[in-house]
Amino acid sequence: MSDVNIKITDREGVTHDVVAPTDMSMNLMEIIRSYELAEEGTIGVCGGMAMCASCQVYVINDPGLEPMGDEEDAMLGEAFHVKDNSRLGCQLHIADAMEGLEVEIAPYP
Prior knowledge:
The protein has two helices and five strands, in the order ββαβαββ. By secondary structure, the chain is α+β, with helices and mostly antiparallel strands. It has a single domain, classed as Roll (Ubiquitin-like (UB roll)), CATH 3.10.20. Strands 2-1-5-3-4 form a five-stranded mixed beta sheet.
């Protein structure tokens, strides 16, 4: 079993140090939900299908994330509060390369 350490700043500005398993096929949205870092019903509304952008995060420190796919790019093209460092948490699958990742959860529309 392998874990990575991630810093997640919630929508109130509080930073949380979380431990995320790399061997459970989870994504960042699911980690945020499991740690209850966003109000119920305001994250992962579409179930992680890259169709709603409720799991949008701003990447503060990128230790080596996978490149953005076409579906993620298209959804962010229609989302609110998008910045140059925006990503969808549901599309960021927990992997060893995420050690040291720092993100901030974007505002919920």
